[in-house]
Specification:
216 residues; alpha/beta
């Protein structure tokens, strides 16, 4: 992980959001200067996020935060090979209700990129699991680094959070970068016929908190 340095808000603008199922909300969208990886990550303040951050700063309940890794196939095209699109939709509503921040992180395919992710899909079709496929392509199992996520949260004053994620590595990396994770809250389980093996592998191989009744 990179050493955490200071980032600052570059631009902020209000954007109305509408999801495919008709759910609507409004986000205060932030861009940043000084992110360590130089990528164009976004932070979306949802619900009464300012009050949630202010409350946390004086020892109250922290804001709900989800760092969501970009997934073009799942988020935009509705691919059922993963659970990314449903997780994004769920996070938008839950964070709006609670007040908090959705981080949209430009790290497609666990950080290996879009083309490499599709190469990995081809290897999965040949029998490898999602982690084995990344290794076979010469990548690490997961190349994501959450230093920029920590920078964004710190720039917005959210140095204490409740983390909406099934992934223990997100909590560990954010804590190491100076963001205190007071609680880790799992997302729902979004199972399809096409992603049950993928979800089972995440649960068994990297200890994701996914309760899979279909995995037996």
């Amino acid at each position: 992980m990179n050493e955490t340095t200071e980032a600052v808000v570059r631009t902020q603008v209000t954007v109305p959001l509408r999801f495919g199922d008709g759910y609507t909300t409004s986000a205060r969208v932030f861009t940043f200067d000084g992110l360590v990886d130089g990528k164009e990550h976004l932070a979306l303040g949802l619900g009464d996020w300012r009050r949630a951050v202010a409350r946390s700063s004086v020892g109250g309940r922290p804001p709900l935060v989800r760092p969501h890794s970009e997934c073009l196939t799942g988020d935009v095209f509705g691919s059922q090979r993963c659970d990314c699109g449903p997780q994004l939709r769920e996070a938008a509503e839950r964070i709006t209700e609670a007040g908090g921040i959705l981080l949209y992180l430009r790290q497609e395919g666990r950080g290996i990129g879009l083309y490499a992710k599709l190469d990995a899909y081809a290897l999965q079709d040949a029998g490898l699991d999602t982690y084995e496929a990344n290794l076979a392509l010469g990548h690490a199992e997961d190349e994501r680094d959450y230093t920029a996520a920590a920078q964004m949260l710190t720039a917005l004053g959210a140095d204490r959070i409740r983390l909406l994620s099934n992934n223990p590595d997100k909590a560990a990396q954010l804590m190491a970068a100076g963001v205190k994770v007071e609680e880790q809250i799992p997302t729902g389980v979004h199972v399809s016929a096409a992603n049950v093996r993928y979800l089972r592998t995440k649960a068994s191989h990297t200890a994701h908190t996914i309760d899979l009744p279909l995995a037996e």
